[in-house]
């Protein structure tokens, strides 16, 4: 009766199962050097006593916490949701739980969380779109603490990371608009302290120059990947002397803001202005008109990053590497030939 009222400890489990404290610890840590019948007896005892593992105490005692730390910028977009879905799907196949932190895109908070988690709280860390990983990846590597960056090109050749071909995706999307006949193409960047945002801007610029179209500063707006930036950037574009006939937003979230701004000005998509996004979040195919966008394999990125981290945890000799997944242009209803091209085509015999 007293045991039910007080917190059950590992000693209680060992006593009830008639095994040593060390045997219970090995069962908790999934040590292979435990007889199957002994393991089953200990597990049944833990279940009967409602014993809950103290993860932090387990880690401090030299074992594993069986917890993976996950740092994300925020929880407000389908982009993050798809990546987490891939991570969660992969972790359900293992014995690991997930501990989630949101950094709100604050570099100091991100670094603080990383160092806190690495202090005996989790076995490894996944970081989605990290803001300034160079601040801590070197320290983690020296400590041989497992981590993987997601949607990032890594901080060096030995930095484990999973990303997508951001430059190529942006190049292809911009070139597609040019082939439709657009020459004035507005571009809304993401946070330019992030590699993915820089690669997408470079892809856009390269496509324009390849087609001998000048890159105009008044058609580039620096955003932060947040939806309001899409709206504000579009308003700025519409106020220039020659507004763009197409707008390329660095992510789908900002593309939604672009769509709202165009409609608020009484213009139609794609009749007056074409719109392209990047990511292909679930909402992209549901808005009307359906959004043309660059598809990143977000769920797969989450899965592969988790697999890579688990491999590092189980094989200390595994060599860190970077995986770059291909992107794909998803052509939908938000893009069309500009009116001038359409008009010219009508009079050509």
Automatic annotation (TrEMBL):
Q: What keywords are annotated for this sequence in UniProt?
A: DNA-binding, Transcription, Transcription regulation
Domain HTH lacI-type: from-to ranges: 8-62
Pfam families found in the cross-reference section: LacI, Peripla_BP_3
Taxonomically, the superkingdom here is Bacteria
MF terms in GO: DNA-binding transcription factor activity; transcription cis-regulatory region binding
Is-annotated flag, keyword Transcription regulation?
yes
Q: Which InterPro entries is this protein grouped with?
A: HTH_LacI, LacI/GalR-like_sensor, Lambda_DNA-bd_dom_sf, Peripla_BP_I
Q: Does the keyword Transferase belong to this entry? A: no
Q: Matching CDD domains, A to Z? A: HTH_LacI (cd01392), PBP1_LacI_sugar_binding-like (cd06267)
Name of the protein in its database record: Transcriptional regulator, LacI family
């Amino acid at each position: 009766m007293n045991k039910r009222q007080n917190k059950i400890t590992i000693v209680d489990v060992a006593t009830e199962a008639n095994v040593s404290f060390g045997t219970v610890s090995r069962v908790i840590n999934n040590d292979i050097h435990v007889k199957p019948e002994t393991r089953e007896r200990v597990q049944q005892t833990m279940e009967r006593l409602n014993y809950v593992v103290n993860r932090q105490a387990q880690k401090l005692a030299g074992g594993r916490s069986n917890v993976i730390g996950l740092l994300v910028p925020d929880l407000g977009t389908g982009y993050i949701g798809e990546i987490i879905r891939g991570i969660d799907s992969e972790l359900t196949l293992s014995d690991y739980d997930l501990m989630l932190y949101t950094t709100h895109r604050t570099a100091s908070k991100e670094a603080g969380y990383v160092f806190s988690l690495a202090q005996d709280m989790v076995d490894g860390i996944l970081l989605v779109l990290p803001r300034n990983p160079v601040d801590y990846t070197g320290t983690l590597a020296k400590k041989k603490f497992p981590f993987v960056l997601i949607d990032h090109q890594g901080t060096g050749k030995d930095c484990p990371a999973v990303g997508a071909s951001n430059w190529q995706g942006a190049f292809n999307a911009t070139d597609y608009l040019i082939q439709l006949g657009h020459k004035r193409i507005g571009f809304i960047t993401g946070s330019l302290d992030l590699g993915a945002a820089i690669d997408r801007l470079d892809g856009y610029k390269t496509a324009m120059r390849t087609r001998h179209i000048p890159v105009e500063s008044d058609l580039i707006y620096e955003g932060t990947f947040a939806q309001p930036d899409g709206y504000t950037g579009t308003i700025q574009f519409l106020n220039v002397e020659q507004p763009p006939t197409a707008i390329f937003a660095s992510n789908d979230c900002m593309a939604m803001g672009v769509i709202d701004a165009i409609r608020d000005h009484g213009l139609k998509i794609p009749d007056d202005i074409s719109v392209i996004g990047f990511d292909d979040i679930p909402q992209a195919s549901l808005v009307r008109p359906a959004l043309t966008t660059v598809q990143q394999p977000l769920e797969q990125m989450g899965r592969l990053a988790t697999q890579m981290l688990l491999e590092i945890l189980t094989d200390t000799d595994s060599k860190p590497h970077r995986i770059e997944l291909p992107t794909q242009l998803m052509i939908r209803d938000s893009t069309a030939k500009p009116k001038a091209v359409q008009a010219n085509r009508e009079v050509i015999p």
